[in-house]
Amino acid sequence: MQLYQRDAISRAVTLDHDALAAVEAGFAALGRGEVVQPPILSMAIEEANGEVDVKTAHIRGAERFAIKVSPGFFDNPRLGLPSLNGLMMVFSARTGLVEAVLFDEGYLTMIRTALAGAIAARHLARENSHRVAVLGAGEQAERQVEALRLVRDIRVVDVWARRREAAEAYSETLRGRGLEVQVHDDIPTACERADIIVTATPSREPLLRARDLPDGVHVTAMGADSPDKRELDTTVLTRADAFVCDTRAQSEVNGELKAFAGRETPFKVHELGQVIAAREMLRLSEATITVCDLTGTGVQDTAIADYALTRLSG
């Protein structure tokens, strides 16, 4: 058994086309029905403002599978500690023996989450998209733009965040990467010229509304990954010409579909893996509005862990 630390993992795995292909292949396998993926195991540790999620999946025929343990303790910054942490355990799919422990401290989760946003845009956004509006100014907001540049010629970024100082700091980081960036005081203005909108916040109430959506926009919603979080108003989902999620079951519990809890959705729900595997064309015109809700899946974790271990041991 091998033990790898974050430094080695981050040198081996970056936001690049090879990593994107590995995660996209995992989604496609899920869409073809080739994945065993149990529900998320989630546990709250309320007295410490913490939570722990465990995700896993097995891609049939693959040599390995991973189990990821992902703690989030949100008072940690007051102690000078990161709020997110975690590790991935990689097992042989033939013998069940542990092959490696990837003590990545949440790095691989950040990578596969950013790549999922790029994969959604690759299949749903207009090919000539060059302007993205980002709601949020944290690490995932930054990484989403970086990953998007793998699949679209992103040149302009419009930023909104609850704290203006966070938005300004974020914008300086993006300008340092050669992007034109504008900071906005409200969401409608930030989104009015967007080709792609990315929501990457911990919001517990809807931020984006149908009236904020320009014709032809693609929306990727990243923030709602637990029952108490929401970023999209119900009108966004009903206005969309195509609604896609990573898995319907997770979106109904943790994602944006929980807005329709206990009742049928008035629109068809597509899953991203099936869109990829079947090469579905959901964008029918330049005016088509698409929405993708990503809650994070075990197959992404197995795909990125297998890719990381291949790079590390090769």
TrEMBL record:
UniProt xrefs under InterPro entries: NAD(P)-bd_dom_sf, ODC_Mu_crystall, ODC_N
Pfam families associated with the record: OCD_Mu_crystall
Q: GO CC annotations?
A: cytoplasm
Q: Which domain of life is it from?
A: Bacteria
Q: Which Gene3D superfamilies match?
A: NAD(P)-binding Rossmann-like Domain (3.40.50.720), ornithine cyclodeaminase, domain 1 (3.30.1780.10)
- For this entry, the protein name equals Cyclodeaminase
Task: Please give the organism.
Answer: Halomonas elongata (strain ATCC 33173 / DSM 2581 / NBRC 15536 / NCIMB 2198 / 1H9)
